[in-house]
Amino acid sequence: MTPPPARRRRSGSNGPAPAHNLPRRGAVRRAQAITTYGVGSLIAVDHESFVVSGLDGAEDHWSTDEAPRIHERRLARILKVEHFRLPPASDEHSKDGIRVRRFPLMHSCPECDELRRHRDFNPPPGKSLCGTCEADLVPSRFVIACEAGHLDEFPYWHWVHRATGRGTTTAGQCGGTLRLRTSGLSSSLRSILVSCSCGVPEVSMEGSFRRSALKDLGLRCRGTRPWLGTSVPAESCSRTPRTLQRGSSAVWQPVLKSALSIPPWSDGRADPLAPYWSRLRDLTDRSEVAISLKVLFGDECPVSVDEVMELLAAEQEEDATESEERTFDHHYRALRNKEYERLRAGNDERERSRDEQFICETPLGDPTALDGLGITGPMQVKKLREVRALKAFTRLAEPDSVADGNEAALSSEVLNWLPAMEVRGEGVFLRLAEDRLAAWEEAPAVVARAERIHTAHRRMMEQRASDPTQVQVSPATPRMVLLHTLAHVLINEWSLDAGYPAAALRERLYADEEMAGLLVYTATSDSAGSLGGLVAQGEPERLASAIPSAIRRASWCSADPLCIETEASGTGGTNLAACHACVMLPETSCEHNNTLLDRALLVGTPEDPHLGFFSDILAH
User: Fold this and answer.
1) Cβ proximity of 48 and 20 under 8 Å
2) What pLDDT was estimated at residue 17?
3) Torsion angle (degrees, nearest 10) of CA 7, 10, 13, 19
């Protein structure tokens, strides 16, 4: 990660601080630029703090020269872009990398206790030092943000002058200098004291995190977006911002969307067509396709007319199930439906090419080994490719609780690409037996238990959303909670039995009225990615021993009986019998951030042992 070249501050300049060079390269990996330190996030490097710059803009934008293109047509289509790009490299060989800007601008000096903008300390060029004390400046611990994604400085001047009645006027009118110190009596907000040399009483930061703290000062969100640079004007915003700690996870949460590459798009044939697909996708006649290819590529066309016709037919088939009136979530679920169909069907020998990125086969073992376990249709995914794209980000609110279109944008203009990463690996696909599942999920005790999770999840989303009427429907159904918890116990089992670290495995759930499957696959592209060890777990004989072992292991938790008898657990009560001692995973492995889990739906409870879908396994 390399910010832009250092610039000297103009004498008497009142503009925002210039972008700053990170003191070293390679501080952030490409994958982290999607999942942890993406556009708009705050990153701490040594004693300094920065915000990652946006994708466009006249200054400090992402450089595309070192950001290779990657293609995934199905995902690009629902995200309305032409292609994706890997984040720029940040190693010693990169010339540019990802740009950042200093944020927050408010800093304090631990020696003289002054609290002011970074430039007002007159630091030496390229350094973050107090020009008087030569001590390292400390970025403000506090920032403010709103649910529309805007980010701003904490209004220290308004906070310290609120008792005088001047807290709602223009900051700095008193002409005094702010100071920030700690009393040292405790580590609470009460010990952080702010004062002004104009003589107003010293105040603490206690109460600044109240939901209405800034509203009581008469302050509204200014709509600032520092990650987009100074040339992008602020947005109009009527929300009330809230105070956050700079390092809080609520400051930035990514909205990630992903797709598996499946035929006919998975062998790379369509990649050369991506820039021109908008001109080809409406053609239906072979002669028109041939003429268009001739115009676009001349005599060296990388694909044949037959291949283009096959791709057009696949897209038209998806068009038949889509409608402009349907929301993004409907289209995203349709994408999952296509993956589920392909994982069930697999692809045979004649469908494969040398460049095929999706190979899914029926195991050679005897499928009767799984009789009576409630599991059916295992498939060995010997080769897969997943593309994960950063669509947007949220602040304060969970991505699942924000309606589509209300997330914060990565750029000031509509671009034809998004940042993304690709993972290549392998996996095992399983389905639940339909007849047994249908009878189980209609049992009153099962429905009541899942409804408790659904209600808690719905309540949490409404509390975190700015408009409770616009939150999405909670996915917490008996089928979904069962599949989710089963995926977790299988990952734990395979991490012990097959030698995989749990963080190297990831779940992908397929749960609705017509789907009941899960895919466990390698989530990294290193040595744990595609050595065949995970695929081997998909043989029926291995599954016949792994599944009962996983269920028996889940039947007991070191936190029992508290864990199994709990009325609610997890964030906002969105789990029941689930904790870090039994079924929770590293959050990189889970699609739902370790929520919507309940192992009682797998194994039952002491009061109702037949509640669990796999209770029969424990009876033998």
Assistant:
1) yes
2) 37
3) 0
3-state secondary structure 5-48: CCCCCCCCCCCCCCCCCCCCCCCCCCCHHHHCCCCCCEEEECCE
d(CA 344, CA 433): 13
In this structure, are residues 425 and 457 in contact, taking their beta carbons and an 8 Å threshold?
no
Whether 602 contacts 589, CB under 8 Å: no
The H or E element spanning position 312 is helix 305-319
Q: Which residues of 131-164 are buried (b: 16+ CB within 10 A; e: fewer)?
A: eeeeebbbbbbbbbbbbbbbbbbbbbbbbbbbee
Contacts for 620 with CB less than 8 Å, ≥ 6 apart: none
User: What are the E-state strand segments in 276-374?
Assistant: 359-361
Higher pLDDT, 230 or 149: 149
Q: Report the 3 state secondary structure along 569-615.
A: ECHHHCECCCCCCCCCCCHHHCCCCCCCCCCHHHHCCCCCHHHCCCH
User: How does 235-262 read in b/e, with b if 16+ C-beta sit within 10 Å?
Assistant: bebebbbbbbebeeeebbbbbbbbbbbb
**DSSP code of 136?**
B
Rounded-to-integer distance, Cα 570 and Cα 340, Å: 29
Give the position of tokens 């060079």: 21
Q: Cα(100)–Cα(24) distance, rounded to whole angstroms?
A: 13
- Helix-strand-coil split of the chain, %, nearest 5: 30, 20, 50
Runs of H (alpha helix) within 188-243: 213-216
138-139 vs 69-70, strand pairing mode: unpaired
Token pair 């501080």: residue: 27
Other beta carbons within 10 Å of 513: 7
Least confident range of 268-277, 377-386, 398-407: 398-407
> Which residues have CB under 8 Å from 542's CB, separation 6+?
536
Question: Binning pLDDT at 50, 70 and 90, where does residue 349 land?
Answer: low
pLDDT of residue 527: 46
Burial of 188 (0-12, 13-18, 19+ CB in 10 A): exposed
Taking the C-alpha atoms of residue 39 and residue 36, their distance in angstroms, rounded to an integer, is 9
The 3 state secondary structure assigned to 176-191 is CCEEEEECCCCCCHHH
**Burial letters for 455-492: b for 16+ Cβ neighbours within 10 Å, e otherwise?**
ebbbebbeebbbeeeebbebbbbbbbbbbbbbbbbbbb
- State both tokens at 561: 């009986």
Query: From CA 573, how far away is CA 63, in angstroms rounded?
Result: 43
Q: In the structure, what pLDDT confidence band is assigned to residue 285 with cuts at 50, 70 and 90?
A: confident
Distance CA 394, CA 461 (A): 13
The pair phi, psi for residue 347, each rounded to 5°, is: -140, 135
Q: How far apart are alpha carbons 209 and 212 in whole angstroms?
A: 8
The answer to whether 544 and 609 are in contact (CB under 8 A) is no
- Residue 591 burial class via C-beta count within 10 angstroms: exposed 0-12, middle 13-18, buried 19 and up: middle
Contact 325, 351 (CB under 8 A): no
Q: How far apart are CA 273 and CA 464, in angstroms?
A: 42
Partners of 517 in beta bridges = 431, 510
Q: Are 398 and 256 in contact (CB under 8 A)?
A: no
Specify the DSSP element, H or E, that contains 434: helix 434-440
Please tell me which residue, 232 or 20, carries the higher pLDDT value: 232
- Helix residue ranges, H only, 115-212: 156-160
